[in-house]
Amino acid sequence: xxxxxVPGPEKVRFDRVTKRFGDQTVLxxxxxxxxxxxxxxxxxxxxxxxxxxxRLLMTLERVxxxxxxxxxxxxxxxxxxxxxxxxxxxxxxxxxRRRRVGMVFQQFNLFPHLSVLANVTEAxxxxxxxxxxEAAARARDLLGLVGLADKEDAHPTRLSGGxxxxxxxxxxxxxxxxxxxxxxxxxxxxxxxxxEVLDVLRDVAAGTDITMLCVTHEMAFARDVSxxxxxxxxxxxxxxxxxxxxxxxPEHERTREFLRSIR
Length: 263
Ligand SMILES: Nc1ncnc2c1ncn2[C@@H]1O[C@H](COP(=O)(O)OP(=O)(O)OP(=O)(O)O)[C@@H](O)[C@H]1O
Ligand SMILES: [Mg+2]
Known about the structure:
Elements: E1 12-21, E2 24-34, E3 39-43, H1 50-57, E4 65-70, E5 73-74, E6 77-80, E7 85-88, H2 91-98, E8 101-104, H3 116-126, H4 132-145, H5 161-173, E9 179-183, H6 191-207, E10 211-215, H7 219-225, E11 228-233, E12 236-241, H8 243-248, H9 253-262
Parallel strand pairs: 3-10, 3-11, 8-9, 9-10
Antiparallel strand pairs: 1-2, 1-4, 4-5, 6-7, 11-12
The protein binds adenosine-5'-triphosphate (ATP) and magnesium ion (MG).
């Protein structure tokens, strides 16, 4: 498949990225570009590499081959020596760049021993160095945004799954990420709690210019929020397009089959 081009500078670019686990090739020479402010949803069968893409952007995994760029700069790699030859990025290079990326997972992974407020202030205080008042003010704004202003003293174990996930969203936003990664953030929730989390994400999408890369099986949400859908199959993009096109008139039988399986 040809490299997808997007106008202007790119927020994210995967340049022939291959990721192997042992002898299993999960991403196979993947080319992918996301424009600043773009909302892209990844769909595709289990095991097709969607989470791996997000984990590479969180620097939780390393590429086997190829280069990941963020903001037009190498991200998986860094220039080294007089010739600027690319070598795998070290921690010092990665630390400031990783802060621009936030992620919300399927399992909320809140700190169970900390209050809701402390969950949201923890990283801004310890990673960004905000003082306690500044971090608390930022956290309270965000808890308001996710509809949990009255829960700041609660412990996560006392909250519903939907409320916990909304705290996790506030926690990610507290770092003011430029790129937000969402990995099946509603799939661990009881059905009646899904809508409240998706509504919060709709507000985030409408109220910010954060670039969003989202994995979801919630196609109504994907249709509302996404500029573009990418259908993955075996570590490659099988087809891509605006949600209306991909969901209503997919080109590939594999995409039709996948969409039938999740509806
Ligand atoms: N740390 C790891 N070690 C070994 N194999 C892994 C690791 N992480 C992922 N894999 C394998 O890579 C493949 C792709 O995994 P990935 O989690 O990216 O898929 P996915 O598209 O997110 O699937 P799902 O829809 O089930 O979440 C799977 O076969 C998985 O078993
Ligand atoms: Mg996954």
